[in-house]
Automatic annotation (TrEMBL), chains A, B, C, D:
<keyword id="KW-1133">Transmembrane helix</keyword>
<comment type="subunit">
    <text>Homotetramer.</text>
</comment>
<dbReference type="GO" id="GO:0004222">
    <property type="term" value="F:metalloendopeptidase activity"/>
</dbReference>
<feature type="propeptide">
    <location>
        <begin position="1"/>
        <end position="14"/>
    </location>
</feature>
<feature type="transmembrane region" description="Helical">
    <location>
        <begin position="226"/>
        <end position="249"/>
    </location>
</feature>
<dbReference type="InterPro" id="IPR023430">
    <property type="entry name" value="Pept_HybD-like_dom_sf"/>
</dbReference>
<keyword id="KW-0378">Hydrolase</keyword>
<dbReference type="GO" id="GO:0006508">
    <property type="term" value="P:proteolysis"/>
</dbReference>
<dbReference type="InterPro" id="IPR005080">
    <property type="entry name" value="Peptidase_A25"/>
</dbReference>
<keyword id="KW-0645">Protease</keyword>
<keyword id="KW-0865">Zymogen</keyword>
<keyword id="KW-0812">Transmembrane</keyword>
<comment type="similarity">
    <text>Belongs to the peptidase A25 family.</text>
</comment>
<keyword id="KW-0472">Membrane</keyword>
<dbReference type="Pfam" id="PF03418">
    <property type="entry name" value="Peptidase_A25"/>
</dbReference>
<dbReference type="GO" id="GO:0009847">
    <property type="term" value="P:spore germination"/>
</dbReference>
<protein>
    <recommendedName>
        <fullName>Germination protease</fullName>
        <ecNumber>3.4.24.78</ecNumber>
    </recommendedName>
</protein>
Length: 333, 333, 333, 333
């Protein structure tokens, strides 16, 4: 990842939910952005829409639809919670397709972005290995496919360092040859908050843009480029060391504020700074020595496997009427 | 693999060398096919060309160039032999490119055919993971690339069961986007002879055709389809149980013939049969019960890894002037 | 594997069922060996006991209990069949423990023999990675373990080439330190018949002896050496090329005999030979050129994974009362 | 890892070098601890000995010998630096063996501690897979072993959650059966400083104690328990989120102090705190919400593979006279 890419992470977030929270700090109300929230026993689902240019400017996210599942307990390797998340994800994804007008027989191409040799970046490829692929049955024996399935294909384009070709170009080539009606692109993200790493899943219809995700994409995967709608599924799997430090400062401030009225002197200069200013300072201190690492939890292998299975199961149930939450596990490893 | 594909294996071989040997049985001389052989201490290199339609008909292989490296000791995990094979392969591949008129700066796309989840079919993907990829340097900073390199990209398109899309279509899409000057396609083959499994490497310029290789390709990877020359690298990694039986019959016949003059009664009815007829019989007997399995040696993991590294090292040295046999190992895992 | 080990495979089988079949050829009745058979829709279960020295001599297997599950369809990757096999295996294993007097709270050590780097030899290690391990809960918080579980530990000792130590010695050391009440040892076997490869599971209480399995064990894993009962679970995963040839000869003979009365001249000299004599001939012909390979089906990765999961699920249900066939899948990957 | 174990990390370090640095803060001179340092172009080697009980108390490390290689550039995937580190490591390890009186023919058992399913904890098992194992040659054909080798065996005992048995017990059992003269135990550690993660290797002769390493060992691997000397090789591969925060505070303080004279008000309350007190505060703030994660760099797969190969190559050269820095690569993957 080039320094250029890293810069971008410092000033923006890939999650619309976070962008809205940041914009609303200090109590601002943002016209042009609407959101509803649903809680189900440890799973919070936020349906957010950026309705106009005003809202888009205010939170720095494109006009479009965003759904976020937040599951703080997801790092606990609890298989019954995982099943519930998968079922919720399937339902939300199905509703999302309806909302943006994707027909139930529309042909899907699932794209697993990221580097399969770098565990926290391997989420996309893991999902691709576990989804139910059916397009070839429709091509080779269209009359024999049972009802309740749609044509689904799936590829992992790899990353620039492995292929020498932009993943955007690889996908465009495949789209032109295989002609799907829409694309579902899964990507690992860098998080702005410790608590979101491997606990949050975002669905959006605004495509994938250069500088998003962990990998160093230089060209986007968007409806404009691909010619068909692109639904992105993003999961934060890494964070910068500076993010951790900055998060902790904030928690400290809140902690002390609740204990004393004389907040001015608690963290000294840091108290005076705005969040972005403080983050910039932390990065200036850590970066020169190469200490602003992108880090991931020690249990990354298990977390990526678990979330990969949740998304694959959810996609199988959402994309095929014949697959539902009771038999969904049979379709993944 | 469908029954249809299996049928094809019974009447043809992917190796031009074998096809020629079969056609020459009984002492026939084949006009239109020429071959020269070079031996170097356990490595036999045969350069074969099918020059005209007559030769093509006679041996059942397309007009074109074929180079075969036969290394009976390759299954012995001998690293100094492996280095020698890699060096020979590199030299032969470089000569091959010259012979068919591929310029030394021509842009290469390396394609690893086959299924990475099926070890004996994973040769292509393993090569792709180990070759030196440079195309992105030429794209992103063309003035900074050191002399002695050419643009090389590499992809593993997967198989129909994983992607739902013909590998031929995936490659065509990528070719149209990334515009290489030629393709190098690596594929695992089914062998007609026990002794060739994981010991033989064939280079050819006739492309890859449906029914060749282990996987069930329905469309070819040829210059006609791709618009650029296709150099195929094939390695036999599996064989049918019926092949083993048929090979053994032949060895038995030779064994007995050297011991007795009364050859007529040794193997009874089998003595009377032609090779193809006998193979057909064996397959008729094994197939109904599902016993005509495609098998691979027990040590398949190690064999595929070893040959994958030989080919990757050889390609690195052949494609880049700056990489030679003394530093080639540094460019693979 | 040394030539010595290979020799042993030619004259013996690791499956008591096969040994009995061979001994009974020509209609012999074997006193001292009793067997009952149960068929359930594609699964055949044979419970066999060698009751005395006479029976042991006759079939070349030790006095003891043997249960075999034969499932010809197991190579078809049918998950509902796999579930049924797992359930049957669990029930048979539980009955087996009762029959040989292993108490339901007896402490188990599960041993996965074989080389994890050689896929067809990796069955044991795969089972070990998927069984439910509980011993440490009993050691660390004995009062908090829910009812319905027994102490189970599990290790994969590796092979001589990886560790430099006999697996028998490693296990003995672990047994002395951890003091289990019995051992369950899983091992991959070489098959005498194409149709048994990855379709047959044998449970026995006679331990594991040098020369059995694929790996080159020089010391046994037996009650005599370990001091506690050893239950072996064996699955044929490889076969010799010579086995395939010999199997095919036999099928040919039967095929021709059903078509003609003049059987004498069909396969010439081969007709006159006994099975062992013929196998010896085949091996003499294939071996000198290194062609008597141990081979495994092309799909070995999938087959080993599938059977590993069947055995792990079955052991979990058999060893723990709290785990049964309805929730067994939750305890394996 | 239990909360208990986590606590221990907060107050101690596994690296003697760090312990000495912490104790020397403020300029204290520590009698009973001596150290010499050697620098070679990006590699710093510190040879440290804790000579008496006084020194041991002062820095909180046992009496014994410690050698540390610090290589800040090791995360840059530079293969020529890696070769140099491996050569230095080999030389230091050989000197270490001489210093503590291990004879050049003494039999070694290499133990790879940690969990092979958790990448940052898999260092030990990766080393074990790559070392040259020779013990079985000495056992099976003692007269045929070439000069320049010693008997070396190697095992990865796994972790409690996989085996149900303490790794200490497994090793003790194997030691009693295979009777090595000394043990080399490789373990992944938690770091107290960002800059040490995957850049530092420590050799020591004080064994491995409960609470050290990443895994939750409850019993030690020491000469007292094993009956033979234990040489530990430790590499920090993970760090706590709180460590990152605390490191950053310290860097901030230094940064500001160099810019202003009025240091008292810069970080407010934090300026007044001692390091341990401040770390405690950070942990109190992060822990309740489960945010004091153990994290590892995103590129963990590559880092662990690289350092595993360095250590394996180094051990091969150090343990066998016949293997040296010019041919060492041939003995690892």
């Amino acid at each position: 990842m080039s320094d250029l890419d890293l810069k971008q992470f410092s000033v923006r977030t890939d999650l619309a939910l976070e962008a809205k929270e940041i914009a609303e700090k200090g109590g601002a109300v943002i016209p042009g952005v609407s959101a509803t929230t649903l809680d189900d026993n440890g799973i919070r689902i936020t349906t957010l829409s950026v309705d106009n240019e005003h809202g888009s400017q205010a939170i720095g996210k494109m006009i479009g639809n965003y759904v976020t599942l937040e599951v703080p307990g997801l790092r606990k390797h609890d298989s019954s919670l995982q099943d519930r998340v998968s079922t919720h994800f399937a339902k939300q994804f199905e509703l999302f397709l309806q909302r943006i007008g994707v027909h139930q027989n529309a042909k899907a191409l699932i794209v697993g972005l990221g580097n399969w040799n770098v565990t926290p970046d391997a989420l996309g490829p893991i999902v691709v290995e576990n989804v139910l692929v059916t397009r070839h049955y429709f091509e080779l024996m269209p009359n024999d496919v049972a009802p309740g399935y749609r044509p689904v294909s799936a590829v992992s384009p790899g990353v620039l360092g492995i292929t020498g070709i932009e993943s955007s170009d690889i996908i465009k080539g495949i789209v032109e040859q295989s002609m799907p009606d829409f694309i579902v692109a899964i990507d690992a993200l860098a998080s702005k908050a410790i608590e979101r790493v491997n606990t949050t899943i975002q669905i959006s219809d605004t495509g994938i843009h250069p500088g998003s995700g962990i990998g160093n994409k230089r060209r986007g995967i968007t409806e404009e480029i691909m010619g068909v709608p692109v639904i992105a599924i993003g999961v934060p799997t890494v964070m910068f060391a500076s993010t951790i430090v900055n998060n902790c400062f904030e928690m400290m401030q809140k902690h002390f504020q609740s204990q004393t009225s004389n907040t001015g002197q608690i963290l000294g200069l840091l108290d005076q700074m705005e969040e972005n200013e403080r983050l910039e300072l932390v990065r200036e201190i850590l970066s020169p020595m190469g200490h602003d690492l992108l880090v991931t939890p020690k249990e990354v292998d298990e977390f990526i496997e678990d979330i990969g299975n949740i998304i694959a199961s959810g996609l199988n149930a959402a994309l095929h009427q014949a697959v539902d939450s009771t038999n969904v596990a049979a379709y993944t490893h």
